[in-house]
Amino acid sequence: AQTVTQSQPEMSVQEAETVTLSCTYDTSESNYYLFWYKQPPSRQMILVIRQEAYKQQNATENRFSVNFQKAAKSFSLKISDSQLGDTAMYFCAFMKQYAGGTSYGKLTFGQGTILTVHP
Amino acid sequence: DSGVTQTPKHLITATGQRVTLRCSPRSGDLSVYWYQQSLDQGLQFLIQYYNGEERAKGNILERFSAQQFPDLHSELNLSSLELGDSALYFCASSPRLNTGELFFGEGSRLTVL
Q: B43 to chain A: nearest residue by CA?
């Protein structure tokens, strides 16, 4: 079974600053996806960024980037130029990739990190 | 707006009752997933359907059941409700079985009194 651990229950950052959220995971699988999801007060889960384990290059989406260290089983999220709208709960998640590239949507989530961006 | 619609948004009921939560996936998406979010358990995968067929099962209680209909909408039925079933229930959809990307609805908040 896979486990995902987010060791930072809460983080805060000043607007326009950079913040890094930590995530570690444990798995015996070789092929998988990793995700960061954002849950703002509106409570809807929004995909922030996605990383395929076989890709060595770290994923980037605008102000969001990851530091994927496969050997260390670490997957941190860096938010640059933080904005007030980034205030949310952030979840790290793992999904096994089955043979043929299929997945079954069974996301294993971490406990979440509450990020507050201060003006 | 993710395109995934869940109803009702809020539901308050009593122990022992039965409720049905409904989900309409994004247009064209064949897979529907149900997740439960509670304070003590966090986010837990319950079940997945693909084009009407059950494809994967997680930590879903026997008191809970789900199905996906020919028009691809899905329902999650929760029966003999207990206080501990109070949670936010999310539906998500994805366009293909072999994708790692899910689109979540806004969730249905269930409160059992």
A: A109
DSSP line for chain A = --EEE---SEEEEETT--EEE--EEE-S-SSEEEEEEEE-TT---EEEEEEETT--SPPEETTEEEEEETTTTEEEEEE-S--GGG-EEEEEEEEE--GGG-----PEE---EEEEEE-
Residues of B in contact with A46 (CB under 8 A): 2, 104
pLDDT of A67 > 60? The answer is: yes
Closest residue to A47, CB basis, from B42, B43, B101 = B101
Element (H, E) at B72: none
Q: What is the mean pLDDT of chain B?
A: 92
pLDDT tens-digit profile of B9-49?
999 999 999 999 999 999 989 899 999 999 888 899 999 99
What is the arithmetic mean of pLDDT over B58-77? 95
Select from B39, B74, B99, B110 the residue whose CB has the most chain A CBs within 10 Å, as the one to mutate to test that interface: B99
* Burial of residue B53 (number of CB atoms within 10 Å: 0-12, 13-18, 19+): exposed
